[in-house]
Design brief:
Elements lengths: L19 H17 L9 H12 L5 H9 L7 H11 L9 H16 L3 H10 L4 H17 L26
Helix pairs in contact: 2-3
Length: about 170
């Protein structure tokens, strides 16, 4: 083995330092679990989750296997198992393998998660039909409230005054 090659992980080591795809599989499965079951107290155990997956998809995956995937102890997932997991969680199978797909799906999951709150839905529905300037003012107020409460930005790359990139009138001043 050359000096630039990473050393293989020790036997039984749960993480895969030189194999980011395996770490991403573990991370993405755990993100899906947290999104699907936001209240940790109501999150099913792996055996019950396996039963739910079987009931919903017709596919078989054991509770032990789910635990091994979620903890990074299992490293050899099959395409069939990825397909079963993707079907259950409502994501494309590529979500587990492709960074671009995962980023797009995570954005959609974050929106769906936020819309679970009736107050967030109510705010969004009331904002419908407002002018771009009014929407920008609301976004500024929400950003300030988040700053005061020391909450992270839900979309760190978004400039509150930039408006909608698809709308040439948005973000401009008259």
């Amino acid at each position: 083995m050359g000096p630039s090659e990473p050393e293989p992980p020790a036997a039984g080591e749960p993480s895969a330092p030189g194999r980011p795809l395996l770490r991403k599989l573990q991370q993405r499965l755990n993100e899906l679990l947290a999104t699907h079951y936001p209240d940790e107290r109501k999150r099913p155990g792996y055996a019950r989750l396996a039963k739910e997956i079987r009931d919903v998809t017709g596919g078989t995956i054991s509770g032990t296997y789910l635990w091994e995937l979620a903890t990074g102890k299992k490293r050899n997932v099959t395409l069939e198992q990825l397909d079963i997991l993707a079907s259950f969680f409502g994501v494309p199978p590529e979500y587990f393998l492709n960074d671009d797909v995962a980023e797009r799906v995570n954005t959609q999951l974050a929106l769906a998660s936020a819309l679970r709150d009736a107050r967030v839905r109510n705010l969004a529905m009331r904002a419908e039909g407002l002018s771009p300037a009014s929407l920008d003012a609301l976004l500024t107020m929400v950003d300030e409230a988040r700053r005061i409460q020391r909450l992270s930005s839900p979309d760190p790359g978004r400039d509150p005054g930039a408006g909608d990139a698809d709308d040439p009138e948005a973000g401009t001043t008259s």
